[in-house]
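Supplementary Note 3. Input sequence used for the single-chain structure prediction.
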Amino acid sequence: MRWSSMLLLNTDLLTEFNIDKDSFYEMVLDGKWTFDELFGVVEKVRIDADGDGEYTEKDTYGLGEFTYSNGAHFLFDSGIRATDRDENGYPYFILKNERTVNAYERIFRLFYEQEGVYYVPGAPTLEMFGNNQLLLLSAKFYFLDSLRDSDVNYSVIPMPKLDLSVEQYSSLAHNACLVLCVPIISTQVGNMTAVMEKTAYHYYCDVMPTYYEIVLKTKYRRDSSEASAQILDVVHDSLMTDFAYFYSHSLGNIISNINIILGGQDLNFASSYEKNARSYEKALSKLIDALQKEP
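The predicted structure, written as discrete structure tokens, is reproduced below.
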């Protein structure tokens, strides 16, 4: 969960730019927080704070982003999926469609054509958020550790949906989170997996509820409203991943190719995907075969 995606909302800037907080929360809880709404909010916020006539990290923006690797988060969290399962439970690719192209192009235009967005790889966006320079910040839950001593008032909200046809919000777990594996040559598989299961059980039943209820919902919260708590629950309940995202390195680095959405290299998703489609399919077939092999 600490590596799952969400947006940080600066509630002071929300008020400063005459956006009613209660109405905003209601819109999110009603499931109407979409790219259209995001564009509408972001375009309202752009201030040359130091008055030098240039827009830099010293100024104020509607949205901040610091890494191209979040391209996949915006895509998956919008409701797009890379894989589905067939009748036998095996994954297959579903990226090649009009909705993916639409989402890809909208995200690209958000970061490269929207003046209210500050996107510079490596930019100190968390520091900017803490200095009240960003209305929204693309973030992970672990970012909140660094904001504990900050004076900024904020809430956690989900990443936007592509449109109203998407039923639920999504929060993609970033691929930097820990995965444990047991070597197939091990002679202690039973003992090793028993220990892993035991610790996972206590983590799920003891550690996670404490982190969520005590740390996130109490110590780190800056907005005590019921609506803010409900939205945090929405984000918590929307955690997800995708087979292709999880196994990207075994699938021709498909997620790296998706992340060019923020690399500024290619706006034409369809042609880019088509160039690699055959290698993706071959890699998927090879991976499925490998996962089915007996030790």
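The radius of gyration is 21 Å. The mean pLDDT is 92.
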